[in-house]
Amino acid sequence: MIPPILEYDDSKRSIIEPESKEKVPERMVLCFMNNVLKKFAQNKRWEIAARLKNESEIWPVYRILVNNIEIGITHPGIGSPLAAAHFEELIAMGAKKFIACGSAGALIDDISFDEFLVVESAVRDEGTSFHYLPPSREVNCSKKMVDSLTNFLQQNMIKYRKVKSWTTDGFYRETEDRILKRKKEGCSIVEMECSALFSVANFRNVEVVAILYTSDKISNGVWNNTLWNKNDIRERLLEVSINACSVI
To answer: Residue 219 carries which DSSP code?
Structure first.
């Protein structure tokens, strides 16, 4: 028998559906950098529009105005299952266009710490995406969203590169053999949510794109995480994501 994860069910209706009476802006930034998000929210006195609730925490969804456009901002939670669930709830609250921003580990040597990474596709080494799309090795981000974001970055002379990512559930199982295999199929970075977010967006007919920075490197069999919390890069990434979300 095949593993249950490969038993794709294309039913559009589930027994439990995401529902909410709260409303959020149609444009949304999913910020995985919690310390930066909290700093911005406190210093800029952002208004709370709604809340995402689960057993571990209550996550505020902020509402701000940028270029006369309402933008929502929240932390979606770490890892594909929680991020996808919060993504679903935000869609139910009215959000339709998303930019996800956060960190990634570099699998190759030539990625610099001062360039942003726009994820074009992701290898599906997590379980959540298989509940939303038929089994496949990878999933693409919306070309329209990738093009819109990279056009914004070019117009504002912001250094970036387009990449394929390896999305994994197993943070502590990034072995040398797995890293080599992912590099051979073209992955430049590793993270924990992109393939799930792309799959949910495809299933729910909304738009999402991911822009990341390199927080650490595992390209030479050694973990170098000296820039994990380099806040100047993280704050710049959130600012860029907010501004891009108002125009793309």
So the answer is: T
- The rounded distance, in Å, linking the Cα atoms of 23 and 47 is 13
Q: What is the pLDDT of residues 21-62, one digit of tens each?
A: 899 999 999 999 999 999 999 999 999 999 998 887 889 999
Strands, E, within the chain: which ranges? 27-31, 47-53, 58-66, 69-74, 97-106, 116-125, 138-140, 160-168, 187-191, 207-217
Q: Average of pLDDT values for 142-167? A: 98
Cα gap 228→214, rounded to integer Å: 8
- Domains of the chain by start residue, with CATH: 21-245 (3.40.50.1580)
Give the residue from 116, 142, 106, 102 showing the smallest Cα distance to 222: 106
DSSP string, 104-153: EEESSTT--TTSEEEEEEEEEESSGGGGTS---SEEEPPHHHHHHHHHHH
- ∠180-182-183 over CA atoms, to 5°? 65
Query: At 124, which amino acid appears?
Result: R
